[in-house]
Design goal:
Elements (H helix, E strand, L loop, with lengths): L5 E5 L9 H15 L3 E7 L10 H4 L6 E4 L6 H9 L5 H6 L2 H5 L2 H12 L4 H14 L6 H18 L3 E5 L3 H13 L3 E7 L13 H17 L2 E4 L2 H10 L8 E3 L22 E5 L9 H12 L7 E5 L2 H14 L6 E4 L4 H10 L2 E5 L9 H9 L3 E4 L5 H9 L2 E3 L5 H13 L9 H4 L4 H15 L2
Parallel strand pairs: 1-2, 1-4, 2-3, 4-5, 5-6, 6-7, 8-9, 8-11, 9-10, 11-12, 12-13
Helix pairs in contact: 1-19, 8-9, 9-10, 12-17
Length: about 450
């Protein structure tokens, strides 16, 4: 009997959106199709807050993509429904709205306004957002329509297998309902820790309890739970006291090899710059920038080095520009707005090293770290001593670690790296290749096939 290779992929983050949460499911769908499977995608019909890349949809030619109605539970979402006006991030960005908002005059006005007491309406609105409109998350308005459309697709395509991505928690609720109604096998991709990391869950106790309840129900009901970090496996083991731990599978996200076929080996590491990829977080601090400043101030022969910050320029400049200016590093730091993946990989390929900075996320297998390992790029990493990132970068042979306890010791390490004249290939190539998309997709296929036996 021919195996049923139809699989329903349920995710709120999908092309043409382009951000870190998109690509795990995107690459899975793209390469499942090439391996003879028939992925059917169920996602949202509106993208309110992310950049877009139309080319991502072109990569999925022939893949059925269904979009269920989603209204952002905010004043913006309500205004868009009532007026039909497009107030999404991508449209406002195209209209130059954020350039006007971030102008010096407007920044001064915003600073003055922020010092004034919040209005009663603002307090009430924030209360609604935190306690009700983001419970269990902002995608709850998608749930009913997604379940309805999921029922239709399961019947239409004779689907026996579903794949859901979490976060968000609403996706877990959708999977729970469809699993309850149909004879399905379910792979729930938890990706990152959900209820043990504040970044991923609400700090409102009533909402958090709801989120945790969903997480536990999904773990119990799903046939397989996959993660993107081995540390997450251990967290799950402790949360559920080892129960059903055999169904937890660590599958790292893989780099899309289509984007790197034309990268030039002759240009690899040819640029005298470090590159930080993604949105910079306030908690990352500026320790690295202080190290860099101290080095270029003391060594005339290293003043040609630069730092590129690639990602949402509005966010990254808002967080860093004051510190960069105070350190007199404006000449050395370049802010590059979000670029498509293939362009990002060109920037990474020519960099001397990538930057991975995180003070506390010991559990995280960073989306960009996956790219760095797969591309075999040296990494200057400021991460916890006991962390998933340090473990994986050490195994890959790519890590150069900033410890953050001894400034002179860290400066000497960075200075030595910047003075290297010959590029030494220390990468563990066999290990690094585990972070290619082929490994990710074949690992999932192995699971899918086992569930059909």
């Amino acid at each position: 009997m021919t195996a049923n290779k139809n699989i329903l992929i349920i995710t709120p983050f999908f092309a043409p959106e382009t951000h870190a949460a998109v690509f795990r499911a995107h690459k899975l769908v793209k390469y499942l199709k090439r391996e003879g499977w028939n992925p059917i995608v169920l996602t949202v019909d509106s993208n309110y807050v992310y950049n877009e890349d139309p080319n991502l949809l072109k990569e999925l030619e022939g893949v059925p993509i269904y979009r269920a109605r989603y209204i952002e539970p905010t004043l913006r979402g309500l205004k868009m429904v009532l007026t039909g006006k497009d107030l999404t991030y991508k449209t406002l960005k195209e209209q130059g709205f954020f350039n006007r908002v971030s102008s010096p005059a407007n920044q001064q006005s915003q600073n003055i306004a922020s010092k004034n007491q919040e209005s009663l309406f603002t307090k009430f609105y924030n209360y609604l957002l935190n306690y009700h409109l983001n419970s269990p998350d902002r995608y709850w308005t998608w749930r009913h329509n997604a379940i309805k459309k999921g029922r239709e697709l399961i019947k239409k395509y004779d689907i026996k297998l579903i794949f859901t991505t979490m976060p968000v928690f609403t996706t877990g609720e959708i999977g729970l309902q469809l699993k309850k109604e149909f004879d399905l096998k379910w792979v729930a991709d938890f990706r990152d820790p959900l209820t043990t990391v504040l970044r991923n869950h609400s700090d409102i106790e009533s909402v958090f309890i709801k989120q945790r309840r969903i997480c536990h129900k999904v773990f119990s009901a799903a046939d397989i739970v996959s993660t993107a970090s081995y540390a997450h496996n251990l967290i799950i083991h402790d949360i559920f006291k080892g129960k059903d731990f055999g169904k937890v599978k660590f599958i790292p996200t893989g780099l899309d090899t289509d984007y790197v076929r034309n990268l030039s080996n002759n240009k690899k590491g040819s640029g005298f710059y470090f590159v930080y990829s993604g949105e910079y977080l306030v908690e990352n601090g500026i320790y690295f920038f202080k190290l860099f400043k101290s080095i270029v101030d003391e060594h005339e022969d290293l003043k040609h080095w630069r730092i590129k910050i690639v990602g949402n320029k509005t966010i990254n400049m808002a967080i860093l520009i004051d510190d960069i200016t105070r350190l007199s590093l404006n000449h050395y730091v370049e802010f590059v707005d979000h670029v498509p993946q293939n362009e990002l990989y060109q920037i990474l390929n020519e960099a001397k090293a990538a930057l991975l900075i995180s003070e506390g996320r010991w559990w995280c297998s960073f989306a960009k770290m996956v790219d760095y390992i797969a591309l075999k790029i040296p990494v200057i990493a400021q991460v916890p001593a006991l962390s998933e990132a340090k473990l994986q970068l050490s195994k890959a042979g790519l890590g150069n670690f900033i410890e953050g306890e001894d400034f002179e010791k860290d400066k000497n390490m960075l200075h030595s790296f910047m003075c290297q004249t010959d590029v030494v290939d220390r990468a563990n190539h066999v290990f690094c290749d585990r972070y290619l998309v082929k490994h990710q997709v074949m690992s999932f296929i192995k699971i899918f096939e086992s569930l059909q036996l």
